[in-house]
Amino acid sequence: MRKKIVAGNWKCNTTVQEGVELAKAVNELVAKADAKNVVVVLGTPFTHITSVVSAVDASLINVAAQNCAAEAKGAFTGEVSAAMVKSTGATHVILGHSERREYYGETSEILNKKVALALANGLTPIYCCGEALSIREANEQNAYVKTQLEETIFNLSVEDFSKLSIAYEPIWAIGTGVTASTAQAQEMLAYIRGLIADKFGKAVAEETSILYGGSCNAKNAPELFSQPDIDGGLIGGASLKAEDFLGIITAY
Ligand code: 13P
Which of 48, 92, 97, 99 does the annotation list as catalytic? Predict the structure, then answer.
């Protein structure tokens, strides 16, 4: 059975000290709650990862980077390689977030390199896709997301593809308070699963965890997560408060 995953993406928020406190609070709540069926991931800034890994129980909480370099190593000032991320104790890496595509010019070509390096270093990519509002308004979201996947992770071997998770995050729902409707989210995730089935076979599609992200909170998570193709969430704002995040983790 495919995994249910609730992953927080802290983005560029919290100091190391605040992040450690938040991680500890999440750990404590998860330990008390019966959330064994959910893989919990905290996507922290690079600077926090080592401290957060030390502060949490690895059997309850996984830690993710929010990015990694497109090169293995060398003269790339300011970059953090996949090997470096792995050496912190992080297990996952968020790749292809729309904010990175939009503000930092991440193309499919760059993302292919990042995904390959993440996998080569034993990190689990949480690979993001999703359309802007203008594309949704033109009802071209399916073709857009299909291209995003075809240009990147659909080029992987079936063995490598089977190691990653996907997060569909419509840009118009990120940080806006406007969640995709349950029907819109389910429809897109079922569509993505169908594309995976066409490309890699039904068994692989059934095993791939596909998450929804975009203004997901403890209130709307139960309905979203009740859908057959929604395997969890990638959570921004609501992952910055331990109680709110727990409300999403226990929404199943
Ligand atoms: P919000 O939950 O704040 O809308 O952010 C979603 C997101 O971008 C997670 O990666």
Answer: 97
Nearest to 87 by CA among 111, 53, 113: 53
Q: Is 248 in the pocket of ligand 1 (CB under 6 A)?
A: no
Q: Are 42 and 64 in contact (CB under 8 A)?
A: yes
Choose one of 66, 100, 128, 169 to mutate for the ligand 1 pocket test, by most ligand atoms within 8 angstroms of C-beta: 169
Ligand 1: which atom is nearest the Cα of residue 216?
Answer: 2
The tens-digit pLDDT sequence of the chain (252 residues) is: 899 999 999 999 999 999 999 999 999 999 999 788 999 999 999 999 999 999 999 999 999 999 999 999 999 999 999 999 999 999 999 999 999 999 999 999 999 999 999 999 999 999 999 999 999 999 999 999 999 999 999 999 999 999 999 999 999 999 998 889 999 999 999 999 999 999 999 999 999 999 999 999 999 999 999 999 999 999 999 999 999 999 999 998
Q: Quick one: how many helices (H) and strands (E) in the chain?
A: 12, 8
169 in active site = yes
Strand 38-43 to strand 4-9: parallel, antiparallel, or no bridges (unpaired)? Answer: parallel
- Sole residue written with tokens 């104790």: 89
28 half-sphere exposure, CB direction, 13 A CA radius: 9
* Ranges of H-type helices in the chain: 16-32, 49-55, 82-88, 98-103, 108-120, 133-137, 141-150, 158-161, 182-200, 202-207, 221-225, 242-249
Contact 11, 171 (CB under 8 A): no
